[in-house]
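Assess the record.
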Amino acid sequence: MREAVIDLDAIAANIRTIAQLVAPARLLVVVKADAYGHGAVPVARAAVAAGADQLGVVDLAEARVLREGGVTAPILAWIHPGDEDFAWGLEAGIELGIGSVAALEAAAAGAGTAVVHLKVDTGLGRGGAFGDEWRALVSRAAELERAGGIRVRGVWSHLANAGSGADDDQLAAFDRAVAEARDAGLDPEVEHIAASEAALIRPDARRSMVRVGVAAYGLSPVEGRTSADLHLRPAMELATQVVGVKRVPAGHGVSYGHTYRTATETTLVLLPVGYADGVPRSASGAGPVLINGRRFQVAGRVAMDQIVVDVGDTEVRVGDRAVLFGDPATGAPSATDWALAADTINYEIVTRIGPRVIRRYRP
């Protein structure tokens, strides 16, 4: 048994908390990467019911999953290959994040009027038009809008979260870019640059809409602040059950390479999860596990399908439930605890959970 229990009530509560905090800004909830591993369609439905104004995905393939799952809410998709065929997206009413003149021309060439959000690179160095390219993009967008090929609904960018000075510079660059868009004759309905971190802690970055991903799932995007500090509830609990228990002597090697040897006579328990399920191998010897109300850690290396836990003299039986991470309010380790053990971020911990892990939803 491997399961990720997803608390949709927690997601809904997080969305309501964030919406109240950022009001009057609109709230776009990001459900890319299968809703950060939580399940795109169930989460999208819960998000919309909780008051999300819009949903965000990476590409049209992810948007299609939502539409085919019966989700009718507005959706923004923002990465498009050079040969993207926008026909299905336009027919399905998907709004397009556009960061180049070439992509804009392709969107405008489709049947109907493409609804677009123009992306400017304000300093992250990833997608979006920069400098003269931005001025060319807004100029062409204004021409195409007048001709009826597109409607520019938004202007957007993405913060690097590189510290107040760098973020201040990006916000100033964003303001200049918006002004240039308006000078070109555009009148965007929404402006958005803040993702989870800035939405929670930088009121000046919220503008008329924010895009919230990891915070909607109850995980803190802010270094040094926990989910509880931000009034968020983690929504995913990753659990399994004990499949083996044995008593071994001192000096017994555990898992590949014998990077761990027992210090004394002890009990080892076997859990049927490993890096094929998304448990990071880099957390070998460090990842925390809760069994029968006590916290232990992975002994030795994480294998493809299993991990071993040294529980000392604690009584553990085959079939007992083991929680790798969940809501710390229940006593469980957090996804952030695993991130620290693996030298990564909590975003990666939840999004890497593999398809062998059954998603179970409550309520």
